[in-house]
Amino acid sequence: MSLQENGPSIAIVGVTGAVGQEFLSVLSGRNFPYSSLKLLASKRSAGKTQLFENQQYTIQELNEECFDGVDIALFSAGGSISKKFGPIAVEKGTIVVDNSSAFRMVEGVPLVIPEVNPEAMEGIKVGSGRGGLIANPNCSTIICLMAATPLHRRAKVTRMVVSTYQAASGAGAAAMEELLQQTREVLEGQEPTCEIFNQQYAFNLFSHNAPIMSNGYNEEEMKLVKETRKIWNNMDVKVTATCIRVPVMRAHAESVNLQFENPLDENTAREILSKAPGLVIVDDRSANRFPTPLEVSNRDAVAVGRIRRDVSQEGDYGLDIFVCGDQIRKGAALNAVQIAEMLL
Ligand SMILES: NC(=O)c1ccc[n+]([C@@H]2O[C@H](COP(=O)([O-])OP(=O)(O)OC[C@H]3O[C@@H](n4cnc5c(N)ncnc54)[C@H](OP(=O)(O)O)[C@@H]3O)[C@@H](O)[C@H]2O)c1
């Protein structure tokens, strides 16, 4: 991040959380220009200090006055905080980039992955004198669409089947801590402490903890269904998903099966993916080396591999791929900062 008199004034809401801390790291790493920085969290954190680029900041309790004079606010403090304070910030002329699901499906609110649909936020700029809201998609949706979109542009996806293997980090800092603690406890022969997930997570896996809906899907799965349609601006694409939590500390993995309207062979797909921004191919069949959550942790790029023709479909109309991405980074903080960069 670089302190510049004519840069925007920035606020980070939820700065003490897993995503909030990553915001700081990404802003710093990308040399984002700023004239001032406000760090906001709950009452619990108010008064604590945060060192950032050799300067000590005091964390303030979020309240309605916090947004006076703020150009861009990066929100990651949960849906209810976004619902309450997002509109207040917008009213004060702030452009809010929101990481929660509060506004993603609201008509007129752009839902943006910069590599995929930057046009959705066209015309929203700092300095226009108007506030605004831009939603960051769900982390699994971002990671999936980073790889699926370049193929979709070439051959048009008609149906997509996604199975996820989601890390503890997706549920925040406390969930990461619980996975560590449970692992220690199980190794020491003690009963694991189950406060965040209500069941043993270490040495186990389970269906995603998001609430189950009346159609039997959980909310995380339906986010993949609905957000894909909005981001691709295509209400006809058929998407189904099964979301699973696995005892990985950080970075999600996803198996994605694609069906196309037009033929797309494996080699052309590999070539398209090799040129796609924000993606790296890890697809070494001879060495059995493919993307892993560990290798993408703390990295910007989403990794894609296991690129192969789906033998259950006729001709070249189906592909299977496997993607891994750091969901605190590209699935949240990095994507939001990329959106903020487009506001300048
Ligand atoms: N983790 C991910 O990969 C991910 C990805 C995409 C989107 N998101 C979304 O980002 C948001 C935060 O996720 P997280 O994983 O970073 O969670 P987290 O680690 O639990 O952090 C939550 C943050 O919200 C703050 N907060 C809670 N109650 C507050 C209040 N009343 N007023 C002000 N601040 C409050 C917390 O501050 P205190 O420390 O003071 O309590 C903390 O900074 C959620 O909406 C989540 O869905 C997360």
UniProtKB/TrEMBL annotation:
Q: Which domain of life is it from?
A: Eukaryota
Q: Which GO terms describe its biological process?
A: diaminopimelate biosynthetic process; isoleucine biosynthetic process; lysine biosynthetic process via diaminopimelate; methionine biosynthetic process; threonine biosynthetic process
A molecular function (GO) held by this record is: NAD binding
Instruction: Report the catalytic activity.
Output: L-aspartate 4-semialdehyde + phosphate + NADP(+) = 4-phospho-L-aspartate + NADPH + H(+)
Give the record's keywords alphabetically. Answer: Amino-acid biosynthesis, Diaminopimelate biosynthesis, Lysine biosynthesis, Methionine biosynthesis, NADP, Oxidoreductase, Threonine biosynthesis
Pathway listed for it is: Amino-acid biosynthesis; L-threonine biosynthesis; L-threonine from L-aspartate: step 2/5; Amino-acid biosynthesis; L-methionine biosynthesis via de novo pathway; L-homoserine from L-aspartate: step 2/3
Q: Where is the Semialdehyde dehydrogenase NAD-binding domain?
A: 9-124
Q: Which InterPro entries match?
A: Asp_semialdehyde_DH, Asp_semialdehyde_DH_beta, NAD(P)-bd_dom_sf, Semialdehyde_DH_NAD-bd, Semialdhyde_DH_dimer_dom
Active site residues according to the UniProt entry: 139, 252
Q: Which residues form the signal peptide?
A: none
Task: List the Pfam families hit by this protein, alphabetically.
Answer: Semialdhyde_dh, Semialdhyde_dhC
Enzyme Commission number(s): 1.2.1.11
The annotated subunit structure for this chain is: Homodimer.
Q: Which protein family is it in?
A: Belongs to the aspartate-semialdehyde dehydrogenase family.
Q: What is this protein called?
A: aspartate-semialdehyde dehydrogenase
Q: Which organism is it from?
A: Lithospermum erythrorhizon (Purple gromwell)
